[in-house]
Amino acid sequence: MQRLCIRAIRHRLLRASIIAALLLFLPLASLTATAQAATAISAIPAGSDPQLAQIIVQDRNGKPMKGAIAQVLVIPQNMAASAQTTEPVVGTGTIDAQGRVIVSLTPPARTDATLASKDGHVNYELMVTDGRGSLLADYYFPRYYGSDANIAREMPALSNTHLTAPTALAGALPTASPTIGQIQYCTWNTVSQTDAYTVVGELHVVQDLSGIFTYGRTSDSTIGIAISSNGGGNWSLSGSVSITNSSGYLISQHAQAPNWGHQIKTEFHYLKQQSRCLYGGWTQNFRIIASQWDGGTVIGNDVSSWDNHPNQWKSPVPVGNGVERVSGAAYNYGGAVCVFGACLNATSGFSTTVKLTWSNTSQTTTRYLYGNNGYPTTATIIYASLN
């Protein structure tokens, strides 16, 4: 139970650092198209997204950022293909006296083959600027428009979140200049890149209980974003993006011993990028972002000490029987990977592409599984027990 409390506290602290007092209450939606149209993807229905974004933007003292401009940009799926990533603006709105703004989304964000993955994932960046184009807040979030209900249920929600600018508002925000208008697009230039193994789950077994962790075909991980104004430090977490891969590649990790519990890692490609926005008033904004899944697998930290402590959520695996978990939320690992001086969180929800499988090979004895925060059918981590 001690680990359950520790993990719960770490999870809350992680969520607090990611959204840094940001509270947004309806999922982000469909915005005015400025990017050129491309081939439609069959997994993503045409037409506008019926959901609306209602965003509250305040300064650090809770004062509404009246007059600030909220704009949503789409992050291309092929980020690792070139040294630059150009993001089209797909919607905009002006924040009112209560700090609220509503934005809606229309194609091509959901139908452009360069912006949406083949299985229906789209990654968005939300920028809040003043009338001169100076950046006030920057936040990232993924959306899933595909047909897999398991994946759809596990996408991170933006409900009850508001954006907080890092500085206090001194007087009124500057009004839009006739020569500096709203952002038309942003280009992110890659200044450094690396590959790094990242925690995507964990596997636990005991004597007579075999286990396999499977990850792949389309991959299903949501990895945090770090942002900085100086590029060398003071990184802060600000949302996340979904990393998908439709190449059909799959990895699996078997338990290596009769009593075995380890985190599982696979490799992703990470970029450190610097922004340049058309009509923007800044050029020194940096981010660290995952761009693609590389594959491969390594065994991570030994966490077997948390097995054989069954709780009220214990569930039997009878002799000759097997169990498979293929849906529901998985644990959000803080510090799942550290690159360029920043540590990012990551979670990989159980789905048809991320699953755990156990088999009781004993001829006489029942073994058990139990969760950190519920039965194995719903828990974010599943442990094993002899009895």
Notes on the structure:
This protein is mainly β. The chain has two helices and 21 strands. The strands form four sheets. Strands 2, 3, 5, 6, 8, 10, 11, 13, 14, 17 and 18 form an eleven-stranded antiparallel β-sheet that branches. It has a four-stranded antiparallel β-sheet with strand order 12-9-19-16, with no helix packed on it. Strand 2 and strand 3 form a beta hairpin. The longest helix has 18 residues. The N terminus is likely disordered.
What overall geometry do the principal axes of the alpha carbons give?
A: elongated
What gap, in angstroms, lies between the N and C termini? 17 Å
The helical percent reads under 10%
The tally of helices reads 2
**Biggest sheet character:** 11 strands, antiparallel
Number of strands: 21
Q: What number is the mean pLDDT?
A: 78
Q: Strand fraction band?
A: 35-45%
> Structural class, from secondary structure content?
mainly beta
Instruction: Return the string of H and E elements.
Output: HEEEEEEHEEEEEEEEEEEEEEE
Multimerization status: single chain
Uncertain runs are: 1-47
The rounded Rg comes to: 22 Å
